[in-house]
């Protein structure tokens, strides 16, 4: 039996999220999809485009997850979990996410794809000296004295730098204010506070 047929039987020939019956397609659920129905979902074009990120997320459309998220089918649970995670501004989505219970393996699968897509969106991840991910607005501490080029002072080890910003295209650089001057700091010399 083809994957389309297997999925179609499982899903009752309807989108496994919103129940639409038009324009259905199999969609692999990564990151390690193996081309079988156990790692794929049947989705309509509207759902599929938003799942894959080719269309912007329309939170109203995903109210269907109030039902679909309770599916017993792991790949459907995985996609539901990820879509809910991608709508952090929707209180109903946060509440639903809190209520969901996923088996350990399924949860790991859901999170794996989420991390991958976050990285792909941005491509640049800033990490401190210990590998902790840095975000704009964080406070970091300098782990060694740094001579500030062109400013003629040394930023002392142990100095806290508040409200850092990330240099968009360079994962090894952040910016912050030290001695009232905005300076570029290498991430390898900071520790997240
Ligand atoms: Zn759909």
From TrEMBL:
Transmembrane segments: none
Lineage of origin: Bacteria, Pseudomonadati, Pseudomonadota, Alphaproteobacteria, Hyphomicrobiales
Pfam families attached to this UniProt entry: YjdM
The name this protein goes by in its record: Putative phnA protein
InterPro entries xref list: PhnaA_N_proteobac (IPR013991), YjdM_C (IPR013988)
Gene3D superfamilies per record: SH3 Domains (2.30.30.40)
SUPFAM superfamilies named in the record: Prokaryotic SH3-related domain
Domain PhnA protein N-terminal proteobacterial: 6-52
Originating species: Roseibium aggregatum (strain ATCC 25650 / DSM 13394 / JCM 20685 / NBRC 16684 / NCIMB 2208 / IAM 12614 / B1) (Stappia aggregata)
């Amino acid at each position: 039996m083809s994957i389309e047929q297997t999925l179609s039987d499982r899903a009752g020939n309807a989108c496994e999220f919103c129940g639409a019956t038009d324009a259905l397609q199999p969609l692999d659920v990564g990151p390690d999809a193996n081309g079988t129905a156990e790692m794929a979902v049947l989705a309509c074009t509207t759902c599929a485009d938003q799942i894959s990120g080719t269309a912007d997320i329309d939170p109203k459309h995903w109210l269907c997850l109030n039902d679909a998220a309770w599916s017993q089918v792991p790949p459907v649970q995985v996609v539901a979990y990820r879509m809910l995670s991608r709508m952090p501004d929707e209180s109903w989505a946060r509440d639903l996410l809190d209520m969901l219970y996923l088996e350990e393996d399924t949860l790991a699968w859901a999170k794996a794809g989420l991390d991958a897509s976050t990285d792909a969106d941005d491509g640049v991840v800033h990490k401190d000296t210990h590998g902790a991910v840095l975000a704009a607005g964080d406070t970091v501490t300098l782990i060694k004295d740094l001579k500030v080029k062109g400013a003629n002072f040394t930023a002392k080890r142990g100095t806290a730098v508040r409200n850092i910003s990330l240099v968009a295209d360079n994962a090894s650089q952040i910016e912050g204010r030290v001695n009232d001057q905005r300076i570029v700091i290498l991430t390898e010399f900071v520790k997240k506070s």
